[in-house]
Amino acid sequence: MGQGGPGLAFYDEKSRLRAVLAVGQAGPGGLTAGKAGPGLALYDENGQERAWLFVDKGGPLLTLMDGKGQPGAMLGIPKEGPGIALCGENGKQRVVLHVDKDEPALKLCDEKGQTRAGMGVSKDGALLVLVDKDGKVVWSAIK
Predict the structure, then answer these.
(1) Stated pTM of the model
(2) Distances (CA, A) of 14 to 11, 27, 46
(3) Rounded Cα gap, residues 50 and 77, in angstroms
């Protein structure tokens, strides 16, 4: 079905693509582009990809897209630990919550996806950081 591996496409009664299950880099629309593992893509009635689920060496990743094909939310469990990201209208990450080696952290990002505020908790205490548009720390506290 594609160049990189086997795949299976599902169409609705109007012959519109609605789902693709693929392994490797098979599938329409670059379903698993750059991924080396099984993937599932779900399409809306207009043919727009709305959800992806992949499993590769880095771990599972679920991406939900808006009606324009931009990422809206991502949930993944890489080796470092689980995380969820919420994106703005431009598909850039705006809120990221993750647990890295049993230490939770929250990042708030600007419209360019750059971290502007962050907080986390570790065995050494809690941290709060504010960053300006140039990436310089303007305020921080550790307790």
Answers:
(1) 0.83
(2) 8, 20, 11
(3) 20
DSSP lists the bridge partners of residue 131 as 137
* Local structure of residue 96 (DSSP, 8 states): E
The model's pLDDT over 7-41, given as tens digits with 9 standing for 90+, comes to 899 999 999 999 999 887 544 444 444 456 899 99
Q: What angle do CA 88, 30, 80 make, to 5 degrees?
A: 60
Tokens of 128: 């709060």
Short-list 74, 34, 68, CA closest to 52: 74
Question: What is the mean pLDDT of the segment spanning 39-60?
Answer: 92
CB 111 within 8 A of CB 90: yes
Which are the contacts of 116, defined by CB distance < 8 A and separation ≥ 6? Answer: 108, 109, 110, 130, 131, 132, 133
Please name each of the domains of the chain with its CATH number.
Answer: 1-57 (no CATH), 68-143 (3.90.930.1)
Tens digits of residue pLDDT in 82-137: 999 999 999 999 999 999 988 999 999 999 999 999 999 999 899 999 999 999 99
